[in-house]
Amino acid sequence: MRLFVALDFPDEVRSAIRDLIAKLKPLARNARWVRPEAMHITLKFIGETDDAKADSIRAALAPIHSPQPVDMHFRGVGFFPDERRPRVAWCGVEASPNLAQLAADVEGALEPLGISRETRAFVPHLTMARFQSPGRLDELIRAAKESAALDFGTARETDFHLFQSILKPSGAEYKRLATYAFVREKA
Question: Active-site residue numbers?
Fold first, then answer.
C-alpha cells in the first residue's frame, strides 16, 4: 500500500480554493487539477509499504506530540519550482512554527523504520495542479499573480492522519487509516 502522513483542513478553505480553481482551470486545460476534497498538507510521503511495515508506522507515529495546535493561514498562489518552469501550482500555507517541527518529528519517528528523511526543506502548501509540460501557461501565471493576495481562510489543527493513496485512472483516492491527536490535554 502507498502511504503518507498529512494534516487536514476545514471545508470553508476547500470551498474558497474550489472557487479559485474554477476560475483558473480554463487557463490550463492540460493540467491535472486536484479535487479540493482530496487536498491535504503533506507532512511525509512514505510510499509503497507492506502491511507489516504499515503496522510499525502506525505505532511509530502514536507518541508524537506538540504543546499547542498548528495554526495555518491559506493564501496566495505560486509555482514549483518557479513560474518560469512551472511543474506544480500551489496555494500557500503560512503556519505557526510548530508545523515544521511536527513534520520533523514525523520524519524522526519513521527514520528508524528505514524510511529516509526528505532531502528538500519542508514547505507547507496545497497542490492545486500538476503540469506535464510548462508550455502555454502565460495566462495562468498572470492570473496567479493577480491572486497572490487572495485569502482562503484559516485553520487550527490538533490531529494528523496516516493516509493510504489508491491510484486510479480518475486520480488518486485517499483512505484515512489512522488519526493521531498530537496535542494532548495536560493531566
Answer: 40, 125
